[in-house]
Every structure is written in C-alpha cells, then in structure tokens.
Amino acid sequence: LDGKLRVGIAFKRPSPGFWRSGRNAYRMAKAIKVTVRGVDRKGDRFKQSASAVDISRNGARLDGVGYLTWPGETVEVKRGWRKARFRVVWVGDIGTPQADQAGIVSMDADSTFWGVALA
User: Fold this and answer.
1) Which of 35, 41, 43, 40 is nearest to 2 (CA)?
2) Which residues pair with residue 6 across a beta bridge?
3) Closest-CA residue to 86 (of 60, 52, 66, 67)
4) What is the pTM of this model?
5) Is residue 23 within 8 Å of 56, Cβ to Cβ?
6) Residues 6+ away with beta carbon under 8 Å from 12
7) Spatial distance between the Cα atoms of 111 and 24, rounded to a whole number of angstroms
8) Which of 16, 31, 48, 70 is 20 to 30 Å apart from 64, CA to CA?
C-alpha cells in the first residue's frame, strides 16, 4: 500500500447519515468552475476540473467529479488563486440525479473562499 494505512469502520446497523454534516448554513445556487485534487479509489492522485453548483460558507455540492473519491476523503479545491481543503461527505449513486456529484464541507476556516457574499 505504499506506506499508507487504511482504516475501516463496521456498523451493526445501517448508519446512512454517519458522514453527513448537518447543513445549517444558507446555500446559494451558483456555478463556479473549480479544480479538484485528491486520491482516487485505487490510491492514485488525480486532478480534475469540476463545477461547484451550489455553495455555502462551509461547503458545496460539486458536479463533474465522477467516482474519483468517497465519503471521508480529503480533497483540495482550487478556485482562481485560492485553494482550500474539504472533506467529502457524500457521493451520488449511479443512476440517481446526484450521480457524478459530491457534497463537500470545508476543513479550513476561510469563509471567503467562494468570493461571493453569502447570507
């Protein structure tokens, strides 16, 4: 595994909301082109263009990320000259309207990352 450790979690009962972060912030529908960097399911590094299709102070919904990542992983999102680390909280299932999308929550305190005023 190239010196990397993987940790698994097992549940006795289904726990679908385990990785989800409660959304208590206003979300704005806004398409913003971004670049996403991270590690794919095979352990290989990736860099891909995507769009943030709705945003909040501490998260966003990305479109165009495919199935490169999964809940719990950390990705770097770059917008212009700004970049920040985000944790993936959900990935859309194949065959659903959320396919090719992922929900992310900020791991950094910079609430000005998106460059727009959020209520």
Assistant:
1) 43
2) none
3) 60
4) 0.75
5) yes
6) none
7) 14
8) 16
